[in-house]
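Re: [help] complex structure
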Amino acid sequence: MDNSDKIKPLSEKIVTSLLKDETSIDLDTFNTLTEDDKKHILFSVTNKNKREERLQLKNKLNKQKAWKAIIDSEKQSNTKRKMIYWYSGIAASIILLLSITFFSNKNDELINTAIVAKNNIEIGTDKAILTLEDGSEVRLEKGQIYQANNITSNGEEIIYLLTEQADHTEAITNEIAYNTLTVPRGGQFQLKLSDGTKVWLNSESQLKYPVEFNGLEARKVELVYGEAYFDVSSSTLHNGMKFKVYNQSQEIEVLGTEFNIKAYKDETNIYTTLVEGKVVVNYQDKKQSLEPNQQLNLNIQNNNISIITKIDNTYKEVSWKKGEFNFKNKTLKGIMKTLSRWYDMEVIFENKDVEDKIFTISFQKSFSIEEILSSIKYANSINDYYINGKTLTIK
Amino acid sequence: MDQNKTHELTMKEFENIFNRLYESLCLIANKYVNDLDLSEDIVQDVFIKAWENKVPFKNKNKIEGFFYTAVKNKSLDFLRSKYAKDVETYSSEGLETLQTERYFLRESVIIETSSLVERALELLPDKCAEAMRLSIESYTNKEIADEMDISVNTVKDHKKVAYKKLRKMSGYLGIT
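Output below.
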């Protein structure tokens, strides 16, 4: 009997014994398991906290949505085939490039495609600059460990701990100390605030936050610019203190939830996407609450807002924090804008016609820029491209 | 049963399996990748593949095992992939432990057993379910009586009703 075949009989045996209120459960026949394993299983099944943990996780799942995704997959399989096409496109074009190089050794006339003069475009990495309350700067990057009073960083994430003697009376008399985390182009970083709130910062983003919250007023942070994903520690754990995220044009008020804000300096819109829970967005003197899977777009030039309800690709909107790019029906211009932040490059469209071409494309952030471009080129979507230094020209 | 006779799932059967196993499978994936969103993606992918490929089952009793194994394999594939190596610090156990059959069997049994217990409790009237839940948490009859503010005899009555109902429903629960 295969191990996986034992899951069902073993579980049934335990359940039956538990429900019959049997004092000892005979699991001797299942000798793949050690005594420790058996104890661990019984403990985990009957322990109240473990049970509640499981129920909490289950509550977060979206079963209906999952079933819909599965039955829709037949319809989507066309899109999926396109994705496979993209990936195979990458492989094929690498072979194509290789064969071009091979021939070019013999015949220089053949070099007329995908010219790469000097490619300095690198894949982004974990990095950020931490500005302390006294104005001094600390460079954080992958592989470098930083440790100060209540701050630790492993080079991918920075964590703020609560001070041991959290004496609130002292906190009011002292001025609140603020730190700033700046993620440059070509970077990404994670942050855990002293209240347990987790923040993912995307390339070219800046967040200003108190080293410690004083516990007497709403927890406030400022997204100075850029894109951030917040997983806010619930107000119920902080005497009901709300969490507020400010930026130049709006304020987001939350109780405990997960959401994404995209507020780049060079874009006209601020996008607030709610993944879970509830938030209220305040702008000018208006208030707008959001439900999960809704996105609020605030145009900062004319202060117009639009709310997209039930966007079906919330996951895609926030997949950047998981190391993926998922573009669904986006223009090449928009895609290149996002890519230019991660690859820290400048993109020039010599051929303006392709700027507004619509793409659906997914790939890992660990792909090189050439892997991505050659697949786009392979699909005959662009004629050619040219890389020189950190500049990419689309022809 | 003819050894070579295989059973291809109908849409209805497939849906029943999904309804029964989806949450449990997400929890087992989460035991590996420690990310609930990703776990949902993994499980959905497994169901999509199973449906597209019309996976045949020789024996209905192997269905659970098939799905649990498929989810485990896909989760491990993810952990071994290039991207996951960068974020290894986020999973709770080392890959070496996660790859063992023991870990797989132990965690799967915990999740499957708990899921069967929850389904059983859902079938009972509120008071009965409450008494049974406490009983499973190893409360004695006396403790249950105190907790629920009822007499010990009433606790015993609740339990009797529960056994009776559950025996009738065991077929429905899949307990043989």
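Chain A has three domains: 3-50, 78-113+323-395, 125-317.
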